[in-house]
Amino acid sequence: MAGVLFICATADGLTRERFDDWYDRVHLPGGMQVPGFRCAVRLREIGEETVRATGCLYVLSSTAVLDSRAYLNLQAETSADTASHVADVHLNRLAGDVVEGNLPSSTQWSQANRLLLAAVTPKGSTAAATGTSAARVRLSSGAGPSRRYEGYDLSLRLVGSAADKSGAPPDAFVSWILEPTRIVHTAH
Question: Which of 11, 14, 138, 143 has the fewest CB atoms within 10 Å, counting from its CB?
Answer without folding.
Answer: 143
